[in-house]
Amino acid sequence: MGNRSAIILICAALSASGAASAAWAGCAANLVELRGDWGQARFTVEVADDPAERAVGLMNRPAMASGAGMLFVYEQPQHARFWMRNTLIPLDMIFAGPDGVVTRVHGNAVPLDETVIDGGAGVLGVLEINGGLAAALGIGAGSQMRHPAFGPAAAWPCTD
User: Fold this and answer.
1) What is the rounded average pLDDT for all residues in the chain?
2) Which of 35, 48, 143, 153 could form a disulfide with 53 if both were Cys (CB 3.0 to 4.6 A apart)?
């Protein structure tokens, strides 16, 4: 079984569990969904939507479940820059504009590296997931992200 198949099975198993199904019945603050020509994926997330939470992010955590992540949400679209200071696990960073459309994916950010990762301008949200998952699933620019933070005018709004 390839990595992509294993990841799809993990996501399917998570969505089939009773607790996950109830949480994923509609949009929720702790859920991010992504879709594209590659399929769909769901992640249970912590939301970092104020400066203090965004400054800490996923620092000093030794591990993260495969179906988990952190969604950074800004008050308005901006130029987003990240680094991996004090971050112990490799991460994929998925940058999205105010419409929820993915503009860039930075794969496998190196733990503890202080090199700036530039997500570009016009970013409203950044989803961090375990390193390598975005590539394994096929998530890339043009994929759509669904979360209440993107509002009703998003490419994939929470209203459907």
Assistant:
1) 88
2) 48
